[in-house]
Design brief:
Structural class: alpha/beta
Low-confidence stretches: 4-24, 248-260
Order of helices and strands: EHEHEHEHEEHHEHEHH
Number of helices: 9
Strand order of the largest sheet: 1-4-3-5-2-6-7-8
Radius of gyration: 19 Å
Shape: globular
Strand content: 15-25%
Number of strands: 8
Mean pLDDT: 87
């Protein structure tokens, strides 16, 4: 199990208070330029490591899919079912990111696929260095698929490039159809958006067309699927996307390299 804590930056609106006291007459000056420089330096270092990851993966024909969502959207359930049905054919392994515990990794291990757990502690996302160390531990074979299950969060993971081949965002119908508006950075970055828990659509207020409209306004290139990882409804579309992504992994890698 890998454990890692690190300084990190957050999208606007995501603040951590740091209470502290000052003596009488102490004036506190906020140095915004230094803060911005620190954020830029952290992201620049991460992007450099991500580019190295991308080259390493491309050189071995390995495609890495960064799966992101808010907590409880069902990404672990989707991965467990996918690995049970396609894991051998995809020669798939998993790098599992959580703040604490190995509960999700244990579920994946139970279907017989290799998995590496990364616990981030207070960290709210995986970064490129964590992925590098996860890949070293997983040691995926040439031509294989690596699913990266990121920490449950629709904010911070969108900021940190890992060097992945593609980004998959999972949103569940129980969360409401306004998530693309509320978390635009995540949906702008997505290569595929999955609306999960479709079996609950008759019981919740979720407008699939409205959700798709919001995504299209933010990101015209993203693919869009509606499915239920629990019942299997719509999974054929996900499996088709995985097969097609396999044939276009070189193109995806080239486009991401050009973008960075």
């Amino acid at each position: 199990m890998l454990e890692h804590e690190h300084p990190h930056v957050h999208a606007e609106g995501h603040d951590h208070p740091h209470p502290h006291g000052h003596g009488p007459g102490h004036e506190h000056t906020v140095h915004h330029p230094e803060t911005i420089t620190l954020e830029q330096n952290l992201l620049a270092k991460n992007d450099l490591l991500a580019a190295r990851n991308r080259g390493w993966l491309a050189g071995r024909g390995i495609r890495a899919l960064n799966v992101m969502s808010s907590p409880g959207a069902g990404k672990t359930t989707l991965l467990v079912r996918t690995l049970a049905e396609l894991g051998a054919r995809l020669n798939a392994g998993v790098i599992e990111g959580d703040q604490e515990t190995s509960l999700d990794a244990d579920r994946i291990r139970a279907v017989g696929r290799p998995v590496i757990q990364i616990n981030t502690g207070a960290g709210c996302h995986l970064d490129a260095d964590m992925l590098r160390r996860g890949l070293d531990a997983l040691d995926p074979q040439t031509g294989s698929t690596v699913f990266i299950e990121n920490v449950g969060n629709l904010v911070c993971p969108a900021l940190f490039d890992l060097g992945e081949t593609a980004k998959v965002v999972v949103v569940s119908v129980t969360e409401g159809d306004d998530k693309p508006q509320k978390y635009p950075h995540m949906f702008r970055a997505a290569d595929l958006v999955i609306v999960n828990k479709a079996d609950l659509l008759p019981y919740v207020e979720f407008d699939v067309d409205e959700c798709l409209r919001q995504i299209r306004q933010l990101n015209s290139h993203a693919h869009f699927l509606v499915l239920s990882a629990t019942t299997g409804e719509g999974l054929a579309g996900w499996y088709d996307w995985l097969d097609n992504a396999s044939t276009r992994s070189d193109t995806l890698t080239e486009s991401l390299t050009d973008a960075h």
